[in-house]
Amino acid sequence: MFLAALVLQAATPQTAVDAERAFAAAAQARGQWTAFREYAAADATMFVPQPVKAQEWLKDKRDPVKSVEWWPVESWVSCDGKLAVNTGGSRWPSGAVGYFTTVWQRQPDGSWKWIVDHGDGLKAERIRPAAPKVHVASCKGKPGSVANEAPDPGQLEGVGASGDGSLQWGWTVFPNGARMVAAHLWNGRDFDRVLVDSIGAAK
Q1: Measured between alpha carbons, how far is 174 from 200 in angstroms, rounded to an integer?
Q2: Which CATH code is given to the segment(s) 12-53+67-199?
Q3: How far apart are CA 175 and CA 137, in angstroms?
Q4: Which residue, of 63, 149, 158, 160, has the fewest CB within 10 Å?
């Protein structure tokens, strides 16, 4: 029993960066959409480009012959260590490059599942650091809520936060098709807006 617990602990990614790397490795080893299904939470959201329930959209998707590659560059983690937002670079089999943002949530069994996956193309490839930058929220003070404007008619959005409120995320899709993903990290006195992904309306 003790040995089995040690094996499980060793196999479980300890951080969201570890989980991101395991997710990316699984895409290469077992297939792109297979890995997406395995690592997605039951209620996860992805953009194709409209927001969809990931598990429903992925259910019958066949893996492409070659999978997209991706790697973490930066990570923001809640004070309680149970929520993280990762961003990094990606390269498609076609040679096109881009970026991704993934929101990760630690599960009751200690594993990590992604709850939001987002990305877009870039003109130049992002660096592949040996050690991504990791920023942890302050545990001082009592975080409140980030003020958000009232949504416009036809606007879609999703929001969430860590249990301690120290890391908050949100996405918005505007009526014209433009979309934005943002994250805020508590610094002990206020929230810093640490990530903004903005994608313009489709032409």
Answers
A1: 10
A2: 3.10.450.50
A3: 33
A4: 149
Question: Concatenated DSSP letters for 4-17?
Answer: HHHHHHHHS-SSHH
Take residue 89 and report the two structure tokens written for it: 């670079």
User: What is the pLDDT, as a whole number, of residue 5?
Assistant: 40
Rounded (to 5) percent helix, strand, coil in the chain: 20, 40, 40
**How far separated are the first and last CA of the chain, in Å rounded?**
58
Q: How many CA atoms lie within 13 A of 171 on its CB side?
A: 26
Three-point CA angle 94, 97, 98, nearest 5°: 135
Amino acid letter for position 107: Q
What value does the mean pLDDT of the chain take?
Answer: 92
Per-residue pLDDT tens digits for 172-186: 999 999 999 999 999
Number of H helices, E strands in the chain: 4, 11
Q: What is the pLDDT of residues 1-27, one digit of tens each?
A: 434 443 344 456 699 999 999 999 999
In contact, 162 and 83? CB cutoff 8 Å:
yes
Provide the pairing of β-strand 69-77 with 133-136: parallel
Q: What does the alpha-carbon distance between residue 4 and residue 197 come to, in Å, rounded to a whole number?
A: 41
Question: Per-domain residue ranges for the chain?
Answer: 12-53+67-199
Spatial distance between the Cα atoms of 71 and 121, rounded to a whole number of angstroms: 14
**Model confidence, pTM:** 0.91
Check pLDDT > 50 for residue 195: yes
- 45 in Cβ contact with 53 (< 8 Å): yes
